[in-house]
Amino acid sequence: MNNFINISDLKDIDKAIEEAILLKKHPTKYQNIGKNKTIGLLFFNSSLRTRLSTQKAAINLGMNVMVMNFSKEGWALEFDDGVLMNSSKSEHIKEAAQVISQYCDIVAVRAFAELKSSAIDNQDKVINGFLKYATIPVVNMESATGHPLQALADAITIAEHTQKKQPKIVLSWAPHPNALPQAVANSFVEMLHQTSANFVITHPKGFELNSEITKNATIEYNQEKAFENADFIYVKNWSSYTNYGKTSQDETWKITIAKMKLTNQAKFMHCLPVRRNVVVDDAVLDGENTLVIQQANNRTYAAQVVLKKILENEKK
Ligand code: AN0
Ligand code: CP
What we know:
The chain is α/β, with parallel strands linked by helices. The protein has helices spanning 13-25, 49-60, 70-73, 93-103, 118-121, 125-133, 148-161, 183-194, 211-214, 223-227, 257-260, 282-285, 292-315, and strands at 38-43, 64-69, 77-78, 91-92, 106-110, 138-140, 168-173, 198-202, 218-219, 232-236, 267-269. It is 38% helix and 14% strand. The strands form three sheets. A five-stranded parallel β-sheet has the order 9-8-7-10-11. Strands 2-1-5-6 form a four-stranded parallel β-sheet, sandwiched between helices. The protein has a two-stranded parallel ribbon with strand order 3-4. Bound molecules: N-acetyl-L-norvaline and phosphoric acid mono(formamide)ester.
């Protein structure tokens, strides 16, 4: 593997999950793979888990890590070619990416959707700018359209906690005061497609995800019906794709104990950060069926398996 931009960049996701579970048992077994190699982690948006778990994964592989908060400390970058740069943008991605490539062996980038225009967000200008101009492998730490490291961690968590070969997995929309990207939900669905899982997506009308991503997935507009017999309830807010960037705080979609009782004692999953009692009640989040802390832990091993594959490829 050279770049990790989408979950489909992993040739065999089941093997990657197995490998991550092994790495979790022996996290520092491959300390030599990253020796004298440097990863640059570039953040255009906030982060807790992605920043620390990717750093931890790199350290476990013996790498050096440089982190840069681009939104506050970097020059404002221009991503369009051929423009007259006489306003707020100080530097073009063309130079920035080539310069960073001289200091690092891998570059990882977080740049969220702006949620103003689907046409612009679908171009995923930041990550694609790095892909175009960097001369080193690029890793997606949540772009405008996807968050594959999260989806891989979620796949690992489901594999660890399922009793069945084909558990019923429900991806449920939940309310939120802010307009949030579709990236986490997109990558979760792409991951489920790749594992041929049994899954249902539930959301209010008008909150359909990009139909190119959901393809033939089952959509159930009745949340309670979707929850019946579920083994995993994966919760996420996303803003509307069809009415781009519009959000909703419809509290009838909040995850409650009463709704969880409709399931097959389902495990509760969320990528975090989560707003208590807006997205999900305290009683569910603090209950014994919650996997949110384990999901966050698996972010390290998801990142580690990805970085390991890239470093191994580099040596060939
Ligand atoms: C971000 C999102 O929904 O994409 C990051 C989630 C990992 N969430 C927030 O901004 C709250
Ligand atoms: N789940 C996740 O990506 O968390 P952060 O935004 O804190 O990195």
